[in-house]
Amino acid sequence: MYSEPYGVEVRFANDPVTITKSHLVFENFEIFSHNDSPLNVKGSFDFSDMDKMMLDVQMKAKNFLLVDAKETGTFRRLLVRLMSTSMVR
After folding, report:
1. What's the rounded Cα separation, in Å, for the pair 46 and 20?
2. Cβ contacts of 66-71, under 8 Å, gap ≥ 24
3. Any bridge partners for residue 19, and if so which?
4. What averages of pLDDT result for each successive group of 10 residues across the chain (89 residues)?
5. Would you say 17 and 41 are in contact if contact means Cβ atoms under 8 Å apart?
6. First vs last Cα of the chain: how many Å apart?
7. What pLDDT score does 89 carry?
8. pTM of the predicted model over 0.85
9. At CB < 8 A and 24+ separation, what contacts does 35-41 make?
10. φ and ψ at 9, to 5 degrees?
11. Are 24 and 17 in contact, with CB atoms under 8 Å apart?
12. Contact by Cβ (8 Å): 26, 39
């Protein structure tokens, strides 16, 4: 996935994402930035009740290059260090 104006380029690992009992399961799923640093995602997306879908994930990254824009702007380069646990309904 690429966005030229924002300098965002990511690719996804070839690992499968499984669906089990209406849960999309992420088991150490990796998203790689332009500098090949991974964003690791663990958790699940529960869509068993379409009116009350729930995302429960842990994300971890070190020096994940989120923005690498060639044009001048607010951010030309944005490196992210992240350890996050989220539950969203």
Report:
1. 10
2. 66/8, 66/33, 67/6, 67/7, 67/8, 68/7, 68/8, 68/9, 68/34, 68/35, 69/5, 69/6, 69/7, 70/7, 71/5, 71/7
3. 24
4. 62 88 92 87 92 91 78 63 70
5. no
6. 26
7. 66
8. no
9. 35/63, 35/65, 35/68, 37/61, 37/62, 37/63, 37/64, 37/65, 38/13, 38/64, 39/64, 39/82
10. -140, 120
11. yes
12. no
Max CA distance (Å), the chain:
47
Structure tokens at 89: 């309904």
Q: Is 23 exposed, middle or buried (0-12, 13-18, 19+ CB in 10 A)?
A: middle
Count of residues making up the chain? 89
Contact at 8 Å (CB) between 55 and 43? yes
| H-type alpha helices, the chain | none
